[in-house]
Each structure stands twice: as structure tokens, then as C-alpha cells.
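Postdoc handover notes: sequence design on the structure in folder B. Input C-alpha cells:
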């Protein structure tokens, strides 16, 4: 794997070409991070990502953090750029416990920001490039929360860490062929959410206030939770907030059962 298609070096941003951070040889893998607040960069031009990267570095080197440089090794933006942070062979201030053993990459996204296919592909290209003989890192991809109690990299990105999205081959489909409903969560909207809501109805659960509106809110979450309970799932609080694989399977089962119970028309 050659270097990522769209790799933006520190010098491209007018930063010193070499990070002042201490030398390290992080070989154990790549750790994914996010930003704790939404940035909406997917809906802006890439110049907004450059401004974000600059301001992140200013924040990290400023009075509240006081680090020698931006905390991360790399960033991966919605437009598919890999942006150099501390870069190759540098200790980081990203994931205490893994700052000299693992490289770090932040998605530059907040909790509900879209994680684009281009962005996922940029992480895959970065990983593949770092696995080449020069740096020869392990292919392991972890989330920040694997090191310490933190929300980072957010539930959505962490699911991608766990389901192998980031370890896929560059250019391969990013959802692995999964049903587009799997992975939906409260706050999402669109056609896949409508499909979810229609199926909740087919499973016999009303959405009395909002119906099929394409917005995954409290009512849809509660509807899904009730559907899960109806097929014997424990379905405690929060069990309708995300369409996990189990939730999806239970929804399908409830729909099949409701259809079977319907009198012939
Ligand atoms: Zn983090
Ligand atoms: Zn960008």
C-alpha cells in the first residue's frame, strides 16, 4: 500500500515539518478517536478541516493542555484526507497507556456527525500504509475507550472498531454488506429509519404520535424496545436506542410472527 491517496503533511499547513514530540516507534496498532462535540465538517469544504486541525493544535499546545504539539498522530476527515498530526515515529498525548505503543487517528467528528465512506477509507489506507515494512505496525485497530474510561471515539465509531469496518481493505464496501438498518441509532434520520419504523408497525407496535417520519426519536426507540420485549428479549431501558444485530433479528422475528397471525385478507 502506497501512502494514502490524500495525505496532507504538516508542512502543507505551514507547521514545522517535524513534530517536536519525543521519538517513539508505535508498532502495536492504530487507535481511533473523535471530538466530543459535533463539527459538521462533512457539510463544509476541506478548508474547514484545515482550520479545525490548526485550532486543535492551538488548543493542545495552549494553556489548558500545554502539550508540545497536537495530541494525535493523524486525523482522517470527511473528505477522505489523512492529515498529519505528530506523524511517524512520535510519542503522542492521545491515549495514556498507549502513547508510545500505538499510533492515533482522530475522525474529527462529534457524537452525531456523519462518518463518511471516504473517511473510513482514509483510515483503512492509513492502516495499510503503516503496516508496510518501513513502519510495520500491527493491523490491530482499537478505540480510545479500550485504554481508559472515556466516551471516545463515540458509540458509532466504536461499533465500527468492533465490527471490523476500519480493518477492511481500502476501497471495499464500508458496511460489509450489512442491512443498512443495522447500526442505526437514536438521532439518525432518513430512508433507513423510515424502513425501521414501517417494520416496527408491521411487528404490531404503533408509533402514535410521529408515525413513519424518518426521524429516530424517543417514540421509535420505545417502539423498537417494545418489539424486542414482545419476542421475549429482556429489553431494559435503552434497548431500543440502537439497531444492534440482536435488535434487528428480534424485529424480523416479531414481523414474521405478526404476519403469521394475520387472518387471510
Ligand atoms: Zn480519544
Ligand atoms: Zn476535509
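Designed sequence:
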Amino acid at each position: 500500500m502506497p501512502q494514502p491517496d490524500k495525505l496532507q503533511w504538516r508542512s502543507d499547513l505551514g507547521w514545522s515539518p517535524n513534530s517536536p514530540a519525543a521519538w517513539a516507534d508505535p508498532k502495536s496498532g492504530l487507535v481511533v478517536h473523535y471530538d466530543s462535540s459535533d463539527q459538521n465538517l462533512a457539510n463544509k469544504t476541506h478548508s474547514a478541516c484545515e482550520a479545525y486541525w490548526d485550532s486543535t493544535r492551538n488548543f493542545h499546545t495552549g494553556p489548558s493542555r500545554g502539550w508540545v504539539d497536537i495530541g494525535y498522530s493523524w486525523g482522517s476527515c470527511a473528505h477522505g484526507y489523512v492529515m498529519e498530526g505528530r506523524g511517524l515515529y512520535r510519542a503522542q498525548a492521545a491515549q495514556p497507556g498507549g502513547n508510545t505503543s500505538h499510533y492515533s487517528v482522530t475522525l474529527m467528528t462529534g457524537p452525531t456527525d456523519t462518518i463518511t465512506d471516504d473517511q473510513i477509507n482514509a483510515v483503512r489506507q492509513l492502516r495499510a500504509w503503516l503496516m508496510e515494512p518501513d513502519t510495520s505496525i500491527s493491523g490491530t485497530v482499537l478505540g480510545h475507550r479500550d485504554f481508559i474510561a472515556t466516551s471516545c471515539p463515540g458509540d458509532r465509531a466504536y461499533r465500527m472498531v468492533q465490527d471490523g469496518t476500519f480493518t477492511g481493505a481500502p476501497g471495499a464496501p464500508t458496511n460489509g454488506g450489512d442491512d443498512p438498518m443495522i447500526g442505526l441509532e437514536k438521532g439518525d434520520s432518513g430512508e433507513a429509519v423510515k424502513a425501521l419504523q414501517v417494520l416496527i408497525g408491521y411487528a404490531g407496535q404503533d408509533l402514535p404520535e410521529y408515525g413513519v417520519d424518518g426521524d429516530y426519536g424517543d417514540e421509535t426507540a420505545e417502539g423498537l424496545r417494545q418489539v424486542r420485549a414482545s419476542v421475549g428479549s429482556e429489553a431494559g431501558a435503552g434497548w431500543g436506542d440502537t439497531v444492534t444485530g440482536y435488535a434487528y433479528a428480534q424485529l424480523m422475528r416479531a414481523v414474521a410472527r405478526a404476519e403469521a397471525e394475520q387472518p387471510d385478507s
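Context for whoever picks this up: The chain has a mean pLDDT of 93. Don't rerun without checking with the PI first.
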